[in-house]
Amino acid sequence: MQSVMTHLAPAALGPYSQAIMKNNILFVSGQLGIDPNSALMPEGFEEQANLVFANLKAILAAAGMGMSHIVKVSVFLKDMNDFAQLNEIYARNFSAPYPAREAIQVAKLPKDGKIEISVIAMR
């Protein structure tokens, strides 16, 4: 088991790794819409979602992977009313065949975020 870490994505907010590689499978911890340079989170859903995908891409790149390696996506939304906008942003970041996915509305996310995404990727 190997930890994967990059300064191009926000540091973990607690005692966990940005990602763990085991047997060519990468498990990426949930990413919030935090700017890794300023450590700030914008107010809007779209801005947060775009940062989430940028952070995921940075972690994948640190592991020598890209978005096409993702096989499973878990999306956590503060408000399911953002689902349609999520799908638009999601479609800009993935191409067919799309990874398996679930999207769940949650009561609250860390730092009062509007979206958090974790992924599993394979070589």
3D structure, described in words:
This protein is of the alpha+beta class and 123 residues long. The protein has a single domain, classed as 2-Layer Sandwich (60s Ribosomal Protein L30, Chain: A), CATH 3.30.1330. The chain is 24% helix and 30% strand. It has two helices and six strands. Strands 1-2-3-6-4-5 form a six-stranded mixed beta sheet, covered by helices on one side. Strand 4 (70-77), helix 2 (83-93) and strand 5 (100-105) form a beta-alpha-beta unit. Helix 1 packs parallel to helix 2. The longest helix has 18 residues, at 45-62. The model has no long low-confidence stretch (mean pLDDT 97).
Give the topology, please.
Elements: E1 2-4, E2 19-22, E3 25-32, H1 45-62, E4 70-77, H2 83-93, E5 100-105, E6 115-122
Parallel strand pairs: 4-5
Antiparallel strand pairs: 1-2, 2-3, 3-6, 4-6
Helix pairs in contact: 1-2
CATH H-level homologous superfamily name:
RutC-like
- Please, what is the average pLDDT? 97
**Order of secondary-structure elements:** EEEHEHEE
Tell me, briefly, the overall form: globular
Discrete helix count: 2
Low-pLDDT sequence parts: none
CATH class: Alpha Beta
Nearest-angstrom radius of gyration?
Answer: 13 Å
Give the oligomeric state: single chain
State the share of residues found in helices, binned by percent: 10-25%
How many strand units? Answer: 6
The CATH topology is what?
60s Ribosomal Protein L30, Chain: A
